[in-house]
DNA sequence: TATACTTTAGTCAAAGAAGGTCAAAAGAGG
DNA sequence: CCTCTTTTGACCTTCTTTGACTAAAGTATA
């Protein structure tokens, strides 16, 4: 294989395959040591090869006992639909349109009624007490990250 | 488990689970001895993992026969518990405290894992791209309306 | 009872231990 | 050459551990 990043990618994927639950937890410094590279190279590998879009979820903790945890998530069949919704949203989103989208997600069985209500509450102009046009931008941001969560959360 | 603080947290939670009334009373120095750490580490563990936001109450006494008593806050009824959380939130809310509250709601079966992730996404500082201190105020507002929704939504 | 001593627990800040970010330098391919 | 990807390292942020100092409560004593 050509370069260090590819080798590390391969290695991490092997670890994932070996682990039963499709989850692997590493010490950044330890892996860096093992492959004789700088620790931040791990961040590069993760950022370019283990993103949400690639079907992985990454969590980490700093400080004593810190770690990086990579989880493979099988993105369910709704992914095209949700990607489509993300496209619709763009940089700003009115409350009305937001409600339409939430309604659509509910009807398409991507969220439950309660989840829909929670999302609507988070996107309500009462909660988002800032001026237009920032409010609509903020609403878009929030809904986009919520959709990402839905995309990469197994039921 | 990774570090001393996590181990002690785990230990205390086991004690709590074992105790009938969800109350546990410890001798700080004794626990420190048991885990071979300095006594003040117990204070750190308590301050970071057994706060009100986490759903615990802590009392203590110094001097001879001193103790630290940790009580898991009784979630009498769902509505009382949620009212209690709303009290904790106040006019502004850090991301950390927000996560503690979401964690507590999950542990108290008020929300599901997915709902928790959705809420966290909505409250994340990445989504809430405005400056402090407004961001913390906004986060408080959003979580308050979400809690209201949970309060008034039948499962 | 007032005072001194002992036994606990609390506070706080410094040091230590991870991981994160970002941009410059280096390399690879077209 | 030009562009895109990879490598590197300086600097940053977060979380944990440690210990010196402080505060409070009980106990013995004048």
UniProtKB/TrEMBL annotation, chains A, B:
Pfam family, one: CtsR
Keyword tags: DNA-binding, Repressor, Stress response, Transcription, Transcription regulation
Matching InterPro entries: CtsR, CtsR_C, CtsR_C_sf, CtsR_N, CtsR_N_sf
Organism superkingdom: Bacteria
Domain CtsR C-terminal dimerization: 78-147
Record has Magnesium as a keyword: no
Residue span, CtsR N-terminal HTH domain: 3-74
GO molecular function, one term: DNA binding
Keyword check for Cell cycle: no
UniProt-listed GO biological process terms: regulation of DNA-templated transcription
Family to which this protein belongs: Belongs to the CtsR family.
Protein name according to UniProt: Transcriptional regulator CtsR
Source organism (scientific name): Lacicoccus qingdaonensis
